[in-house]
Amino acid sequence: MVKNKAQHFAQWCFLSLIFSIFTTAKALNYGDALAKSLLYFESQRSGRLPYNQRVTWRDHSGLTDGLEQGVDLVGGYYDAGDHVKFGLPMAFTVTMLSWSVIEYRQQIADAGELEHAMEAIKWGTDYFIKAHTSPNVLWAEVGDGDTDHYCWQRPEDMTTSRQAYKIDQNNPGSDLAGETAAAMAAAALVFKKTNPHYAHLLLHHAQQLFEFGDKYRGKYDEEGRMGVVKSYYASVSGFKDELLWAALWLYKATDNEEYLRYVINEAENFGGIGWAITEFSWDVKYAGIQVMASKLLNEEKSKKHSSTLEKYRSKAEYYICSCLNKNIDTKNVERTPAGLLYIRQWNNMQYVSTASFLLTMYSDFLKSSNQKLSCHGGIVGHQEILSFAKTQVDYILGSNPSNMSYLVGYGPNYPQRVHHRGASVVSYRENKAFIGCTQGYDNWYGRVEPNPNVLVGALVGGPDSQDNFVDQRDNYMQTEACTYNTAPLVGVFAKFSELEVQKELDHIQDLGLVASY
Ligand SMILES: *[C@@H]1O[C@H](CO)[C@@H](O)[C@H](O)[C@H]1NC(C)=O
Predict the structure, then answer these.
(1) pLDDT digits (tens, 9 = 90+) for 90-99
(2) pLDDT band of 26, cuts 50, 70, 90
(3) Tag placement on the chain: N or C end, fewer CB within 10 Å?
(4) CA of 403 to the centre of ligand 1 (A)
(5) Of the candidates 171, 173, 172, 153, which has an alpha carbon nearest to the alpha carbon of residue 161?
(6) CA 367 to CA 382: how far, in whole Å?
(7) Distance (Å, whole) CA 241 – CA 270
(8) Of all protein residues, whose CA lies closest to atom 1 belonging to ligand 1?
């Protein structure tokens, strides 16, 4: 029987009510976490804010970005607690948001958040379209870390340099071109059905950017190119991972075998089947590539490449097993005493968030193909992988020794002094009196009081190796949040919110209540 939306809703309200009567301990609310995670991207918006902006303590900013260079670079995202628009992490953020929607579209839609997720993606891709001014020119950054960090200002007051930097054929940046191509190809898949014209446009840019990156090879952060980015977002793993990553996304988006052949032919040369790495980030994409390539093994049309794809898969398994603590001794990811994956001191949560995403997806992949994972430490089923991913997500949301949600604005206890210029200074909407560069440091940065604005949905850097977290604004290793921390969580929260709904329904069925309505 097909029910209409209102009936579904009424039924759902009734079931929720019954359920809440029968449960004492309140389970984590992943649907709420999902909705909040998407609000965060509105806080990070640069440019002219739209009429339906929900985060109302923000206002327009960066309205002359690109003007000096004669190009319109208004829009895009600030990466973290400052006001530089860094192309590489911005593109990775958009790729992960898009991947979240591609894998968990239905779950996001069921939670009523699909439109918000698509808006978050489009805010990034609209900017990439502007920044890609000709086939071999991509504007890579606006502002610079050094001058930006001298000031503690709201974005609306910004007086720092808005110098823009680009890559082109004389100053190549295959890493940046590759990641931006990946982001636009992934986003094209997101918009394919609802906005085919836009999807087509994105694909066109993605294909050109990949060609540019592949033909003019080099790292974007080299001296004489974009040395300005070196201390902030240096591409340590080089550009080979981004080229493989872009080719995979383009294959997914176009079905053009040429891209798959690239992934197969360059597998060895580009380290795709050589690197076994235990972290996945805006810089190092091998684990993501390897998981994506593994999933191709399920498709009939890629069967003829199965020997190379199997090699990709063995490295993907290395990554998954290392997170599960099931590799040979020294090849596992460390954990804090309370069980949080621990890679490094500075912004560790970014790695927890990407790992949770890949684990959740890999669990789905095993389930759908009716397979198990074989680690050095034993055979693992899809349910065990998902359960482990859940421990990480639950830790993030407050199941940890500090009872602290590291997702800002979620639950009763969360970081109050996020290292974030806009959030830590009185809202521009409330007080438009100009706040200067050092005035911000003097009057707002050093305050012990909580931030006046809550940066809802931000995932902060999180605790140290001993689960300790110090909620101070100058403790940027732990209290700063970045757009690429939250992006993978969009998919993960959607997945767990679906399971929670399912569990509640099962529970009601167990109680024999379903027959009563
Ligand atoms: C965290 O919550 C638990 C259970 O409610 C409680 O026993 C514990 O003392 C709390 N810890 C902190 C640091 O507040």
Answers:
(1) 999 999 999 9
(2) low
(3) N
(4) 6
(5) 153
(6) 6
(7) 7
(8) 403
Whole-number Cα distances in Å, 14 to 8, 10, 187, 311, 516: 10, 6, 37, 50, 11
Residue minimizing CA distance to atom 12 of ligand 1: 402
State residue 195's pLDDT score: 98
How much is the average pLDDT of 367-383? 96
Do residues 491 and 101 make contact, with C-beta atoms less than 8 angstroms apart?
yes
Closest ligand 1 atom, residue 413 Cα: 14
Angle 293-297-301 from CA coordinates, rounded to 5°:
105
pLDDT in tens, 256-288: 999 999 999 999 999 999 999 999 999 999 999
Ligand 1: centre distance to CA 469 (Å): 15
Q: Which of 469, 307, 334, 447 is nearest to 398 (CA)?
A: 469
Residue 341 — φ and ψ, nearest 5°?
Answer: -60, 135
How far out from the chain centre does Cα 444 lie?
29
* CATH class in words for 2-516: mainly alpha
Residue 468 CA, ligand 1 centroid: distance in Å:
14
Task: Please identify, by atom number, the ligand 1 atom nearest to the C-alpha of residue 402.
Answer: 13
Assigned token pair, 301: 């049309």
* Amino acid (1-letter code) at residue 514: V
d(CA 109, CA 115): 8
Could you tell me the distance, in angstroms and rounded to a whole number, from the CA of residue 411 to the centre of ligand 1? Answer: 14
What tokens does 44 get? 């990070």
Residue type, 213: G
Distance 339 CA to ligand 1 centre (A): 17
Mutate-to-test residue for ligand 1 from 24, 403, 467, 470, highest number of ligand atoms within 8 A of CB: 403
Q: Give the start-to-end residue ranges of the domains of the chain.
A: 2-516
Closest-CA residue, ligand 1 atom 2, reads: 403
Structure tokens at 325: 């603590």
Between CA 157 and CA 62 the distance in angstroms is: 9
Does pTM surpass 0.90? yes
What are the structure tokens assigned to 288, written together?
Answer: 């993501």
Nearest CA, atom 13, ligand 1: 402
Q: Which two tokens stand for residue 368?
A: 């759908």
Ligand 1 lining (C-beta closer than 6 Å): 402-403
Would you please indicate which residues are annotated as catalytic (active-site) residues?
A: 419
Question: CB neighbours of 407 closer than 8 A, spacing ≥ 6?
Answer: 33, 36, 37, 396, 397, 414, 457, 458, 459, 486, 489
